[in-house]
Amino acid sequence: MRENEIYVLSSNPEIKETLRSMIINTLDAVLSSIDSDRCYSGIDPNDLRRIINSIEVLPENGIGFDKTLKRVEEDVLPHLLSTWSTSYMPHLHSPALLEAIASELIIAIFNDSLDSWDQGPAATEIELIVIKKLCELFGYGEDSDGVFTSGGSGSNLSAVIQARDKFCNEQLNWDVKKKGLPAEYKKLRIYTSSISHFSFDKASHIIGLGYDNVVHLPVNEKCQIDTLKAAEIIKNDYEDGYLPFLIVATIGTTDFGSIDNVKELKQIADKYNMYLHCDAAYGSGAIMSSYSSRLGELSLADSITIDFHKMFLLPISCSCLIVKNKKTLECFELHADYLNREEDEEDGYVNLVGKAIQTTRRADALKVLIAFMTRGRDGYRSMIDRVIENAQYFYNKIKDDPLFITGPKPELSSVVFAINKGDELNKRIRRALMSKGTIIGQTVWKEKVMLKFTLLNPALTHEKIDELVKAIKEYK
Ligand SMILES: *Cc1c(COP(=O)(O)O)cnc(C)c1O
């Protein structure tokens, strides 16, 4: 068989061998491109653009896989970001566990989809058992359920839609699913921290309420929602005729890893029949750690966003939303004759499309299963304890040094800090480190440019942290 006659996998031994050698060659190319601990080649954006632009995207005649791989090896692999590097710490962007990388191969080869049972029989059943375990882990009872999504933003959007539909159904006796927004829609309001993730503003736009109906609540010194002020703001809005329908507690803010008080926010939510959502995209991983009590009582919330591509160290993308009462997910249910016939479901063929915004959906739950089985509670605990303890170590090292300004004491694995010599120097430090292959974060806190270590890599050592502190101090 000629190379260009082999299209897709089959039981033919020759074809299986072809795939095997393509995968092995790809892996060899990847592994031989990794020869240092830097996270980036350091090339500047214009030079990189020139190299990438020289690639012919769609030649008239295909050049075959070997030549294509060679070109990728020369021009692409050296400049990809090495997320496993302990020199990479700007974002909530984690390295991937080895077994989870291997599991991607299974997901890609079978290419199952989670819309209907006949598109992914075992994949569907796996999503169901993984969701069940997650609900148990976060303290939800029998009525709970959940669904894998495209990412934390997708999970949050899904929660916002459920909150709106539930509120309109129960409080305004209005079926949004059928009739669209109610006449008084401009009064519907979402309440979230002033430092929450911007996916709530986006979600508010997407569902037709707009940015102005997202109220950003003030935070205290620890970067948590000030619940006394929140109660006051919501009460005033309510008395002014607004319809507060959703409070979001952020469990691990993107910048600081700060954790809102779920119990106090739940009391406010109950008073006005509001939906309470926990955005634990970042903090959810800490459920596995010895520090899980820092997260608070997440099971009080109506839903929880969990990102596996952050603290759980799985490849992108992998996220889910779990809900306390499976009824709220019904807002995504819709039957089509070509996909998810009602009679199938009566006979036990579960079609997960009825819980999701997406239709075609990857079997991401499989990599959660494989990583959970491989590591167990104990393996995860030690990895996540280590990243939380590393943040503590770094914070303790600089907090009393007059050269540094430090942000709030870390609850999770992020430390926000700056050199006490003005914004410009701090910006320069980040750029200078980047050109040497170390990438750290930058944000703003109390109107100052701040630097940030977002520590997700359990392989980071105290010695490496010491070296980085020394390097940063040299720029003063
Ligand atoms: C990362 C993050 C998100 C968005 O998740 P994606 O997976 O990037 O879409 C939402 N909320 C918080 C708090 C986050 O840190």
UniProtKB/TrEMBL annotation:
Cofactor: pyridoxal 5'-phosphate
A cellular component annotation (GO) from this entry: cytoplasm
Biological process (GO), any one: carboxylic acid metabolic process
GO function terms (MF aspect): carboxy-lyase activity; pyridoxal phosphate binding
Keyword annotations of the record: Decarboxylase, Lyase, Pyridoxal phosphate
Gene3D superfamilies in the record: Aspartate Aminotransferase, domain 1, Type I PLP-dependent aspartate aminotransferase-like (Major domain)
Signal peptide region: none
Family as reported in the entry's similarity comment: Belongs to the group II decarboxylase family.
Protein name, as recorded: Diaminobutyrate decarboxylase
Organism whose genome encodes this protein: Bullifex porci
